[in-house]
Amino acid sequence: MSVEGGALHLAVWRGPGRGAAPPLVLLHGFMGSVAAWGDLPRRMAADRRVIVVDLPGHGESHRPRKPESYSIPTLAAAVGSAVSQVAPGPVDWLGYSMGGRVLLSGVCDGLLSARRVIAESSSPGIEDPGERDERLAVDAERAHLLETLGLEAFVDRWMAMPLFDSQQRLAPETLERERRRRTVHDASALAACLRGASIARQPSYWDRLGPLGPRLLVLTGGLDPRFEAIGDAVVVRCPEARRHIVADAGHAVHLEAPEAWLRAVREHLDRRGAPE
Fold first, then answer.
1. Is residue 275 in some structural domain?
2. Predicted confidence (pLDDT) at residue 5 exceeds the cutoff of 80
3. Which contiguous run of DSSP H or E holds residue 138?
4. Which residues does 188 contact at the CB level (< 8 Å), separation at least 6?
5. How far is CA 271 from CA 116, 242, 257, in A?
6. Which conformational region is residue 28 in: left (phi greater than 0), alpha (psi within -120 to 50 degrees), or beta?
7. Of 44-48, 55-59, 150-154, 187-191, the least confident
């Protein structure tokens, strides 16, 4: 899809139900792509279209080299423009990690037309100025390491982060597949993304979550204490939001516990009585 600043790659699954339910849009995390969702889009497409986006700098989408091209509101605007060309009405959205930040930004800023919203292992931003400064330095150092070490060495370090410790339980071939999927990217584009899409640079949406109400599902893994705490804090700010914790999964619930992920997502999207 052609959008301001470049082209976004979208993949669309259509099942035998021929789209009876509203479309579902999936937004991956940092170093992800359409491929990161495995066969989950196909399985979700039984009664709806599933639209999977390669975010800028990822997969087959355009790869800007300027950090400002990756600001979270800029990414949300690009995604909204692309998706509206294939699904003009309100759709259901799920964003994982960085993709969840794009999603929450776009919905809160009115850039994404949303019926229901699922934030998987994600955050509305950082409120504390001191924490912002610390995280900005961390992401700047990560971008520098990516540029100096090269993509493959950086990916190895990334996958060894404590955030992903629970993934060491996965089969070796699964981990190797995930590594290969990450190493097909462009190092310069990813470094620009680390700088521009840093959570330290984006607006904080903590005080703007309330209107999402029961449309919002906050999904995290029980083996990811950091994002479990963030998820709990989100529902304090948005008391009508729904909360689901998959006990035996870490940060990437869709990868580590796909069956539980499918159940949680379907239950939220298919439940009756939710506001449209």
1. no
2. no
3. helix 129-149
4. 63, 65, 147
5. 11, 12, 21
6. beta
7. 44-48
Residue listed under structure tokens 């990560």: 142
Predicted TM-score (pTM) of this structure: 0.96
What CATH number is attached to the domain comprising 232?
3.40.50.1820
Q: Please report whether residue 72 resides in a domain.
A: yes
Closest to 44 (Cα-Cα) out of 64, 23, 29: 23
Domain that residue 59 falls in:
2-270
Taking Cα atoms as reference points, which of 30, 48, 46, 26 lies closest to residue 38?
A: 26
Average pLDDT over residues 219-228: 99
> Residue type at 94?
L
* Position 79 in a domain: yes
Rounded-to-integer distance, Cα 72 and Cα 55, Å? 11
For residue range 32-78, list pLDDT tens digits in order: 999 999 999 999 998 899 999 999 999 999 999 999 999 999 999 99
- Does a structural domain hold residue 276? no
The Cα 206–Cα 57 span in angstroms is 27
pLDDT in tens, 85-127: 999 888 999 999 999 999 999 999 999 999 999 999 999 999 9
200 in helix, strand or coil? coil
The number of folded domains in the chain is 1
Collect all residues with Cβ–Cβ distance below 8 Å to 247 and sequence separation of at least 6. 221, 222, 223
